[in-house]
Design brief:
The structure holds 3 protein chains of 3 kinds. Chain A is an all-alpha fold. Chain A has 14 helices and no strands. Chain A has a single domain, classed as MetI-like fold, CATH 1.10.3720.10. By secondary structure, chain B is an alpha/beta fold. Chain B has 2 domains: about 230 residues, D-Maltodextrin-Binding Protein, domain 2; about 200 residues, D-Maltodextrin-Binding Protein, domain 2 (3-Layer(aba) Sandwich). In chain B, a hairpin with a 5-residue loop joins strand 7 and strand 8. In chain B, helix 11 crosses helix 12. Chain B is globular and about 65 Å long. The two termini of chain B are about 15 Å apart. The chains are: A mainly alpha, B alpha/beta, C mainly alpha. Chains in contact: A-B, A-C, B-C.
Chain lengths: ~300, ~450, ~280
C-alpha cells in the first residue's frame, strides 16, 4: 500500500513524537523498581520471616528444574494455556461473527455477551465450583434429568484441569469476542463496497477481506489471552486450590503458595521469573507476527 | 516431645456469681490516657467480629481511641497481615491470628510481646482482667520461647485468645435411632455404622455415611484427620525428635481414614473443603460429620440455614485402638504488630476486647467457643446451647468434656509448619487417589518434612 | 431466496439461544441464590422453586442487624471511582501514545511499546510486596489516587495496544488529505483518526473497565477501610464458619449493574453506523 512513505512525511510535521508517549512512560517507570527488586530476590534465600537474606546464585532455579513438582506444574500450565486458546479463539471468533450480523436482538445480545466479564474471576471460580459439585451441584442434577451419568468435574485429578478450562472459557471468551467484534466493525465500508462491486461472494469476502483485516486483532487477542492464561490464578485457586492432588497446580499457584503460605520469598520469585520469561518469549514472537500483519495492511 | 499444650484445660469455679462481681471492681487504669489515637485493626470474618462490632463504639466512648476496623475473609486476611508485618511499616496495629501463624510471625520478630503490658499497673488492671479465668491451655497457646519444635506455653506471651474450636462427631440422631444405632465410640465402630448409614432413602435420595473435609491443605492434619491420627497414638515428631508420620500408628489411622471415606462417602470426597463438609451435613444428605468443627453447630441448629435443625447429636470424637482420644483445636487470638506506632492504645484495645464482659457479650451473639470459664458459666450462654443435641444440654456437656480432657494443641511450634503439613496432606491424598501404598507415601512425606524442618 | 433468509434467521436465533443459555445459566443461578435462604441454597436436589427472601439484600446493605457494618454501597462507590477514573486516565494517556506508536517512526518505538505490554503479564505477587512498602511510604495506601495509579498496570497496556492496532489500520490517505488542509498532528489525531476508530476505543474502554473492576489483589492489599472495592466486599461474605452464599450472590448482583451500564453505553459505539459516517466525511 506504500504507507511507509506517507508515514514519514506525516511525521515530519510533528517535531517530537516522544511528546505523545511521555505521559504513558511516566506511569510505567515506577513499576520497574519493584520488578528489579524481585529479580534480585530470586537469587537469594529470602524467607519473609527472616530478616537476613543471602545471595545464593542460581540455586533456586536449579532446585526448581530438579523438582518433579515444578516440572509437572510447568506441563500443566502450558497445557492449560494451549487448551484455553484452542477453545476460546474459535469460539470467540464465532460469537463475534454472530453478533456482527444485523438483527433486532443484536444490541441486547452484545450486553449479554459482556455479563460473564462482570463477575470477578475469584467469584466465578467459587460459584462454578458449587455448580460443578458432583453430588450436590446443579450441573450433575441437570445431566441426571436427561439421563447422563454424573461427571466428577473438579473432584477427580483426571477431569479437574479440563473443568477449570471450561470455567476460564465462560469467563474470558467474551473478552475475545468483544475485541474481535470491534475489529469486524472497523472494516472500512469502502473496502466492502469495492468487494461487492467486484462481485465477490460471501466466502470470497471472508477469505480475502475479513480474515486478513482481522488477523492483527486475532494476534493481539492471542497475546493477551496467552499471557493471562499462563499466569492464571484467581479462577483456578478458588475452584480447586491447585488440587485434587496437584492436578491443577499451575505455576502461579505454586509461586503463590511458596510466597504467601510458606513465606519462601526467594524461591517464589524464581518461579515467577520463569513464568515471566515464558510470557515474555511467547509474547515477543506473537508481537513480531502482529507487526508484520499490521504492516501488510 | 515435651513442651506442647497437652490439654486446653478448664477451671470451673464453683461460685458463679463471683466472676460477675469482679466486673464492678474499680479500675486502676486510666482508660483515657491514649485519647485521640486512631488504631487500624484487621479482623478475620467470623461470628466474633459481627458480635464485637456493635460494641466498639462503647470502647471509643470510653477511651477516646478511634478504631478503624477492617474485616477480610480468612485467606485474604492472612495475606494482608503478612504484607504489612513484613513491610515493618506498622500500618496495622492489632490483628486476629492463630498459633500456626504466630509461630511464623514471632520468629520474624513481627509481633509484640505482651507480658510487659500485662505487668504494668498503669496499663492493666490485672484484678479485673483476671488471667486465671482463661482456660489455661488456651491462654498458654499464645506463649512461646521461640525455640523451634519446643517451648509452647513458655517464654513471652505473643497473643491473647478470643475463641477456639475443636473437632467432634456430629451425627443425625434421627437416622441413628431409626437404625437402632448409637453414636460411635471407636473408629472401627464409626466405620461400621457409616457403612450401614450409606443407603438410599424411601424418597429415592442417596444418603451417605460420612462427610469431612479432605483436600490438600494443612487443615487436614492440623485439625480433622489429625484428630484421628493422634487418637491412634500417632505423633508428628516422636520422642527422639524424628518425624514420625510414617509410624505404624499413623499408617493404621490413615488406612482406616481412607477406607471409611471410600466406603461411606461419595467419590468426590477427595476435593471436599471445610465448607463443603458443613453444607453437606446441613443439607441432610449425610449421617455423620466426622471430626468436624464444633463451630458449625450454630448453623446446623438454625432452621433458616439447615435442613437438620433439631436432629443433630454431638459426641466426643471416637477413641483409637488403645482408647486414646486426642482432638486438635483451632484458637483465634489477637496480637499486636511490633512495628505499631500506637502500642499503648493497641494494648488498651486488646485488653478491653478480651475482658470478661466483652467476651461474654460476644459469645451470646455467636462467638463460639468461649475461652473464659466465666463465660461458660453465664446462664444466658447455657440457655442458648441448651437445646442443641440429642438430649438437652448435650452440646454443652460435650464441650466441657472436650476442654477438660481431650482438646489440645498437639503440634510443636515451627515457622515452617504450614509447609510441612501441606506435604503431609498431599501424601494422604496420594494414597486416596492413586490407591497406592499408604506407608510408602507417608515415608516419602516424612523425609521431605524432615528436610523442611531441618531435622535430617 | 425467501426460504434461505428464513433459514439464516433460524440459524441466527439458534446461535443466540445456545450462547444465551451458556452465558446466562450461571448468572440465573446466582440471581436465584440471592433470593434464597441458606438452607435452600445447600438443598439437594437443587431447588428451582423456593420461598424468596430479601434478607440477603438487607444484610449486605447494612439494613439488617445481621450484617451490621456491611454496607455494600460503600464498596460500590469506591469501585466506581477507581475503575472509571483509571479507565479515563488510561484513555487520556493511551490515545496519543498509541497514535505515536502507530504512526511515527521512532527509534525506541518497539522497545518502549513492548515494555509497556510486558507490564501486563507481570504476575501480581511479583510486584505487590515491594509495592506495599512504597505505597505506605508515599502515603498512597488506602487512597483513591494510589489505587488509580496501580490500576494503570491493568488498563494501560491493554488500552495502548488495542488502540495502536486500530490506529495502524486507519488509511493514511484520510490523514494526508487533512494534512493538505493544514491540520497539525494533534488536530489530525482528534478530528480525523480518533472518530474513525471509535469502535476500538469503545472495545478498549469496556474491557479495561472490566479488568479493573474485577481486580482483587490490589484492592485487597493496597486499600484499607476507606477505599475497598467490590471484589474485596464480595469476598467478605466468606466467613470463617460458613460461606454466606446468599450474601455473596446479592453482592454480585449489585456489582454487575455498573458494568452493564458501562457496556450498554459504550456498546453504542461498537455499532457500525457511527464509524461509517465518520469515514465518509
Amino acid at each position: 500500500m506504500g504507507g511507509l512513505a506517507h508515514k514519514k512525511r506525516l511525521s515530519s510535521l510533528c517535531a517530537s513524537p516522544y511528546l505523545f508517549v511521555i505521559p504513558a512512560l511516566v506511569l510505567v517507570i515506577g513499576i520497574f523498581v519493584p520488578f528489579l527488586s524481585a529479580v534480585w530476590t530470586s537469587f537469594t534465600d529470602s524467607k519473609l520471616y527472616i530478616a537476613e537474606t543471602n545471595f545464593i546464585g542460581l540455586k533456586n532455579y536449579i532446585d526448581l528444574f530438579r523438582s518433579g513438582q515444578f516440572q509437572q506444574s510447568l506441563k500443566i500450565t502450558v497445557f492449560y494455556s494451549l487448551l484455553s486458546l484452542a477453545v476460546q479463539l474459535p469460539l470467540g471468533l464465532g460469537v463475534a461473527f454472530l453478533l456482527n450480523i444485523p438483527s433486532r436482538m443484536q444490541r441486547f445480545m452484545r450486553v449479554v455477551l459482556v455479563l460473564p466479564l462482570l463477575i470477578p474471576p475469584v467469584v466465578a471460580g467459587l460459584i462454578w465450583r458449587t455448580m460443578m459439585h458432583p453430588t450436590n451441584g446443579i450441573l450433575n442434577h441437570l445431566l441426571g434429568l436427561i439421563r447422563i451419568a454424573p461427571l466428577p468435574w473438579l473432584s477427580s485429578p483426571k477431569t479437574a484441569l479440563i473443568s477449570v478450562v471450561l470455567i476460564d472459557t465462560w469467563v474470558f471468551t467474551p473478552f475475545v469476542a468483544l475485541l474481535l467484534l470491534a475489529g469486524l466493525q472497523s472494516i472500512p465500508a469502502e473496502l466492502k463496497e469495492a468487494a461487492s462491486i467486484d462481485g465477490a461472494g460471501v466466502l470470497d469476502r471472508l477469505l480475502w477481506i475479513t480474515i486478513p483485516w482481522l488477523t492483527p486483532h486475532i494476534l493481539l487477542v492471542t497475546i493477551f489471552r496467552a499471557a493471562d492464561s499462563l499466569k492464571s490464578f484467581d479462577i483456578v485457586y478458588q475452584a480447586t486450590r491447585g488440587g485434587p492432588l496437584n492436578a491443577t497446580r499451575l505455576l502461579h499457584i505454586m509461586a503463590y503458595e511458596e510466597a504467601i503460605r510458606w513465606a519462601g520469598f526467594g524461591k517464589s520469585m524464581a518461579i515467577i521469573m520463569v513464568l515471566w520469561i515464558m510470557c515474555y518469549a511467547i509474547t515477543n514472537i506473537l508481537v513480531n507476527r502482529w507487526k508484520r500483519a499490521v504492516e501488510v495492511m | 516431645m515435651k513442651n506442647r499444650i497437652t490439654s486446653l484445660g478448664l477451671v470451673l469455679s464453683l461460685v458463679v456469681a463471683l466472676s460477675f462481681c469482679s466486673i464492678v471492681s474499680a479500675d486502676s487504669v486510666n482508660w483515657r490516657q491514649e485519647e485521640g489515637t486512631a488504631l487500624n485493626v484487621l479482623f478475620v470474618a467470623h461470628p466474633f467480629v459481627d458480635a464485637v462490632r456493635p460494641l466498639i463504639p462503647e470502647f471509643e466512648a470510653k477511651t477516646g481511641i478511634k478504631i478503624n476496623l477492617e474485616v477480610q475473609s480468612e485467606v485474604p486476611a492472612f495475606e494482608k497481615i503478612l504484607m504489612d508485618l513484613q513491610s515493618r511499616r506498622g500500618t496495622i496495629d492489632v490483628f486476629m491470628t492463630s498459633p500456626l501463624q504466630v509461630w511464623q510471625y514471632a520468629t520474624g520478630g513481627w509481633v509484640e510481646a505482651l507480658d510487659g503490658y500485662l505487668a504494668d499497673p498503669q496499663l492493666t488492671d490485672l484484678q479485673a482482667y483476671d488471667l486465671d479465668d482463661f482456660s489455661p491451655g488456651v491462654l498458654a497457646a499464645g506463649r512461646w520461647n521461640l525455640q523451634p519444635l519446643g517451648g509452647v506455653g513458655e517464654g513471652n506471651t505473643w497473643a491473647l485468645p478470643i475463641n477456639y474450636e475443636t473437632y467432634i462427631t456430629a451425627y443425625r440422631y434421627d437416622l441413628f435411632q431409626k437404625f437402632g444405632l448409637k453414636a460411635p465410640t471407636t473408629y472401627d465402630e464409626l466405620a461400621e455404622v457409616a457403612k450401614q448409614l450409606t443407603f438410599v432413602a424411601e424418597d429415592g435420595k442417596q444418603i451417605y455415611g460420612v462427610t469431612t473435609r479432605f483436600d490438600k491443605y494443612w487443615d487436614l492434619p492440623f485439625l480433622t484427620y489429625g484428630t484421628m491420627v493422634f487418637s491412634f497414638d500417632g505423633e508428628f515428631i516422636d520422642d527422639e525428635g524424628r518425624v514420625a508420620i510414617d509410624s505404624p500408628e499413623v499408617v493404621a489411622a490413615t488406612e482406616l481414614f481412607i477406607s471409611i471415606l471410600q466406603e461411606s462417602a461419595p467419590a468426590s470426597i477427595g476435593s471436599n473443603t471445610w465448607y463443603d463438609a458443613m453444607q453437606q451435613f446441613a443439607s441432610g444428605q449425610y449421617a455423620i460429620a466426622m471430626n468436624e468443627a464444633d463451630l458449625f453447630a450454630p448453623v446446623y441448629e438454625d432452621p433458616s440455614q439447615s435442613m437438620v435443625a433439631g436432629l443433630v447429636g454431638y459426641a466426643v470424637p471416637p477413641a483409637g485402638p488403645n482408647g486414646t482420644i486426642k482432638a486438635n483445636s483451632w484458637i483465634w487470638q489477637v496480637a499486636m504488630n511490633s512495628a505499631s506506632k500506637n502500642k499503648n492504645a493497641a494494648w488498651l484495645f486488646m485488653q478491653w476486647l478480651t475482658s470478661k464482659e466483652v467476651m461474654a457479650e460476644t459469645h451470646l451473639n455467636g462467638n463460639m467457643n468461649p475461652v473464659r470459664s466465666s463465660a461458660w458459666e453465664d446462664p444466658r450462654l447455657v440457655e442458648m446451647v441448651e437445646s442443641w443435641g440429642e438430649y438437652p444440654g448435650q452440646y454443652a456437656e460435650v464441650q466441657v468434656t472436650m476442654l477438660e480432657n481431650y482438646s489440645g494443641l498437639w503440634f510443636p511450634p515451627h515457622p515452617e509448619l504450614t509447609r510441612a503439613l501441606d506435604r503431609w496432606a498431599e501424601a494422604v491424598q496420594q494414597s486416596f487417589f492413586e490407591g497406592g501404598n499408604v506407608e510408602r507415601n507417608l515415608q516419602k512425606a516424612a523425609q521431605d518434612i524432615a528436610t523442611m524442618l531441618g531435622l535430617d | 431466496m425467501a426460504t434461505k433468509k428464513t433459514l439464516q434467521g433460524v440459524l441466527l436465533y439458534l446461535g443466540y439461544l445456545v450462547m444465551f443459555l451458556f452465558i446466562v445459566f450461571p448468572l440465573y443461578w446466582i440471581v436465584t441464590m440471592s433470593f434464597k435462604e441458606f438452607r435452600d441454597i445447600i438443598a439437594y436436589p437443587p431447588r428451582f422453586l423456593f420461598k424468596p427472601t430479601l434478607a440477603n439484600y438487607r444484610a449486605i446493605l447494612g439494613l439488617a442487624g445481621d450484617g451490621a457494618g456491611f454496607a455494600f454501597l460503600g464498596y460500590l462507590k469506591n469501585s466506581i471511582i477507581v475503575s472509571s477514573l483509571s479507565v479515563a486516565l488510561s484513555a487520556l494517556v493511551s490515545i496519543p501514545a498509541a497514535y505515536a506508536f502507530a504512526r511515527f517512526p521512532m527509534r525506541l518505538k518497539d522497545n518502549l511499546s513492548f515494555t509497556i505490554l510486558s507490564l501486563r503479564f507481570a504476575p501480581e505477587i511479583l510486584i505487590i510486596i515491594p509495592l506495599y512498602a512504597v505505597f505506605s511510604k508515599l502515603n498512597l495506601y488506602d487512597t483513591y489516587l494510589g489505587l488509580i495509579l496501580v490500576h494503570q498496570l491493568i488498563t494501560l497496556p491493554l488500552t495502548i495496544w488495542i488502540l495502536r492496532g486500530f490506529f495502524a489500520e486507519v488509511p493514511v490517505e484520510i490523514e494526508e488529505s487533512a494534512k493538505v488542509d493544514g491540520c497539525g498532528p494533534w488536530r489530525i489525531l482528534t478530528r480525523i483518526s480518533l472518530p474513525v476508530i471509535l469502535p476500538g476505543v469503545a472495545g478498549a474502554m469496556i474491557v479495561s473497565f472490566v479488568f479493573s473492576w474485577n481486580n482483587l489483589l490490589f484492592g485487597l492489599v493496597l486499600s484499607g477501610p476507606k477505599t475497598q472495592p467490590v471484589t474485596v466486599g464480595i469476598l467478605q461474605t466468606m466467613h470463617f464458619d460458613q460461606i454466606n452464599w446468599g450474601w455473596m450472590a446479592a453482592a454480585i448482583v449489585f456489582s454487575i449493574i455498573p458494568g452493564i451500564l458501562v457496556s450498554g453505553y459504550f456498546g453504542k459505539y461498537l455499532v457500525k453506523g457511527l464509524t461509517e459516517g465518520a469515514v465518509k466525511q
